Structure formats: structure tokens, C-alpha cells
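One chain given next:
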Amino acid sequence: EELQIELVDRFGPLPPAAKNLFRITQIKLKAAAMRIRKIEANSTGGHIEFERDTRIDPRFLVKLVQSKPSLFSLDRKQRLRFVQPMSEAETRLDIAERLTKQLAEHVIDKKSPSESA
């Protein structure tokens, strides 16, 4: 965020493509911290692919799918699918940010046995 502020200070308002690049980078950094491998979205929906050692509470994922089965599904062990119209890139970024924020609220502390000793 500091880099974005500095760029605006030096060069003026950022073009939409540059703003989106910063948003994408923030989403990727947050996702990596939660052990999310990939987030992909297109005009009809997308998916979130988790690492095997993801820090997201699996009980939350099950509750999410059960509470909104028309929107979410688990298609494999490490993949959460979502169905939602998102024709604009801005909308896809908004949804990706909202989902990563929601997932971040359900992070569990998964330390390896060597870390907890």
C-alpha cells in the first residue's frame, strides 16, 4: 500500500490497470498466507484451490457450502467452486477480495510438530 501511495504522490492518479495490479497483488499475498494455491474467476464464476496444508478451517468450508449450495460447492478435496455472474474485471476483484477476507476470518493455526516444540 505504501508503494501505491508513493506512486500516486509522484505521478498522480493511477490508471485502472495499475490499480487492479495492486489489488491482485494484495489478494495473492493474503491467499499465500492462508496457504491458498490459486484463485481463478471468469464471467460465470470461479474456484479457490487450497494447498494440502491450508490454514482455512475445513468446518467453515463445509458450512459455507451447506448454507449456500447454489453458490458454492467443493468439487475436490482442495477446491471450492463458486457460481456467480461477474462480467466485469472490477466485479471479479471485488468478489475475490470479499472471499479472501471471509476466509481469513476462519484461519486455524496449523503448526508442524517441530514448530510447537
About this structure: Strands lie at 36-41, 45-50, 72-76, 79-83. The helical segments are 2-11, 16-33, 58-67, 89-104, 113-116.
